[in-house]
Amino acid sequence: MAAIEVENLHKLFRIPHEKRNTVFESLTGVLRPPQYETFQALNGINFDVDEGEALGIIGENGSGKSTLLKIMANILRPTKGRVKVNRRITPFLELGVGFQPNFTASENVRTYATIMGVSKREIEDKLDDVLEFAGLEKFRDAKLKNFSSGMQVRLAFSTAIQTDPEILLMDEVLAVGDMEFQQKCLDVLNQYRNEGVTIVFVSHDLGAVRRFCDRTLLLNKGVQVALGNTGDVIDRYVYGGNELQTPEAHENEQVKAEEEAAPKNRWGDKQVEIANVEFYDKFGNPGSRFNSFDPVTIRIFYQAHKKILGPVFGIALYSEKGDNLYGTNTDLKNLTIDSIEGSGYIDLVIDRLTIFTGRFFLTVAIHSHDHKPYDWHDKLYSFDVMPTTRDAGLFEIPCSWKL
Ligand SMILES: Nc1ncnc2c1ncn2[C@@H]1O[C@H](COP(=O)(O)OP(=O)(O)OP(=O)(O)O)[C@@H](O)[C@H]1O
């Protein structure tokens, strides 16, 4: 039997449209029916979660992930359709709601655990463990109002795991806390998983979803875009098929970036012009989102208005903050180009993208051997990298531990 059955779920939010500020408006408004704008947050969602399964839910901001989880947790009612939950459910949503700022950490743990259904005796037995797990032993008698939001979520998470769940609903819990705490949370989740607890896991951390979830559901603007094997669904999200990343949208983004940047980000005598730059993913499709460690090809299209002898093509990669992370050119890679004329393209083939996560900007240039620019596009192109590793930092250094 499935632990959770979701059938044809719809959720329509009604947002009050009108503000009646004047006496006249209030008076006339009484006679008029109230007006609303509606927003379709979920549109026909269907899936089952098997017992003992870990299901991931991913999608852009606002795609309906939290709404779906809240309906599953019975915090929100669906407009249409139904959710059948066949086991005891423990929602790890809105963790820490109910915390009292004027209570100490220990007092809050006691109150919160009571709300979550843990008995008084159990709470007293486990209080030290909870505080230790949260890394807050020293703060047991400090008032919560002096805690950072990260400390509060750690405390809430540590308390919540003391319940004895059969189904766990988790929303972005791992977004809070440092790496060490996130790892501890994942360890607990893995332990639950091994014990056969059913888990629904919403996260923007695709690396964690990939490692943790058996199957994954992809939402886009409230619509179920894909459901299936986690690796395939993440690829679909990252590499397209998610509607939001159509080649046109990508093109428009680039055109916009160019318009906004021109003319100070483009210079050169234009004897050769950079006609376009495209990024290609491991499937050979154009896109601007890639998994770290995947292959990527950067294709530079040029238009040479006359025969150009010995041109040099180059790129430079920048972080969002503007740090220059990497640069290379055809000269440095010992590729001598005798001449070019008319239109054509050159590929920079990256076998393995060793940067971890973030948005990156690319400068593309064509210049002569003596560094006279023909066409220079300064940070005019961008792409996003999605994490697939738990290592920290910005890029991979190939290494291994030996004892
Ligand atoms: N109570 C509400 N009233 C009106 N609109 C709402 C309400 N709650 C959510 N929405 C809207 O529904 C859409 C889906 O929101 P939801 O929080 O489920 O998305 P999400 O995928 O969890 O996003 P994120 O990744 O940013 O948390 C959003 O456009 C949001 O503004």
Description:
The model is unreliable at 241-250 and 252-262 (pLDDT under 50). The protein is of the alpha/beta class and 403 residues long. Helix content is 26%, strand content 36%. A hairpin with a 5-residue loop joins strand 17 and strand 18.
What's the helix and strand layout?
Layout: E1 2-16, H1 23-31, E2 36-50, E3 54-59, H2 65-72, E4 80-85, E5 89-92, H3 105-115, H4 120-134, H5 149-160, E6 167-171, H6 179-194, E7 198-202, H7 206-212, E8 215-220, E9 223-229, H8 230-239, H9 247-261, E10 266-267, E11 272-280, E12 289-291, E13 296-309, E14 312-319, E15 324-329, E16 339-350, E17 358-367, E18 373-386
Parallel strand pairs: 3-7, 3-8, 5-6, 6-7, 12-18
Antiparallel strand pairs: 1-2, 1-4, 8-9, 10-18, 11-13, 13-16, 14-15, 14-17, 17-18
Helix pairs in contact: 3-4, 3-5, 4-5
The chain binds adenosine-5'-triphosphate.
